[in-house]
Amino acid sequence: MRTYGQYCPLAKALDVIGDRWSLLIVRELLGRGPLRYTDIRNGLPGVATNLLADRLRELEEVGVIRREAAPPPIATTLFHLTPRGEELRSVVRALADWGAPLLGESVGGDVFRSDWVRYPAALYLKDTTPDGPPLTIEVRTGDEPMVIEAADGTVRTRPGPTQHPDAVLAGPPKLVIGVIAGKVSLSDATARGLHYEGDPTVLGRLQPHAL
To answer: How many helices (H) and strands (E) are present in the chain, helices listed first?
Structure first.
C-alpha cells in the first residue's frame, strides 16, 4: 500500500481508501450487502480483474472488508464490510452528494447500472406523509428495474420489478435521476422523453431533501 507519509488524519484515511476503485468497492458492499467476487466485478464495469483482486486484498489487510466462506448451496467466498468499513457510509454519502451536480456533465459513453438509483434516492427523497399508506414506484432505467418503496416515513430501494406499482418512472438515466433529485420537473422530463405512469402526487409525496 502506498502512503503519503503525512501525520494527518485525512492523509492517513487516503492511505487506506484513496486508491482507484477502493471506495467504489465499498459503495457496492454498502448498497448490496455481502457479495461474491463476480458480483463486485459486475458492479464495477471497467475494472481489471487483477486490480480488483489487489484492492480487495488491500482493503482486507487494513480491516475495511473481510471474507467468509458461504455455506452450501452458495459454497463460495463472500466479501463483507467490517464495522470499520461500515463507518464509511457517511463518507460515501457525502461524496455522492458532492458529486451529484456533476451528473449533468456526464458524457454519453458513461456506464450506468440500475442499482445506482439507490444513491440519489437515499440522498434526495424522503416520505413527506409518513402516516400515509405504503407506496411503490418502479424505476425502469439501466439494466434492470428498481423499486423505490416508502412506508412509515422511510424510503428504501430494492432491485427487481414489483406487482401493481403505484407509479412507473421509465427513461434515460439522466432524466430519471434528474426527476428523483428534483433537478428536472416531471413535466419537463416527460416532454423530453421520460415515461411516467400513475398519479403524479405519488412521486410528489417523496419530495427532494433541501440541500
So the answer is: 10, 7
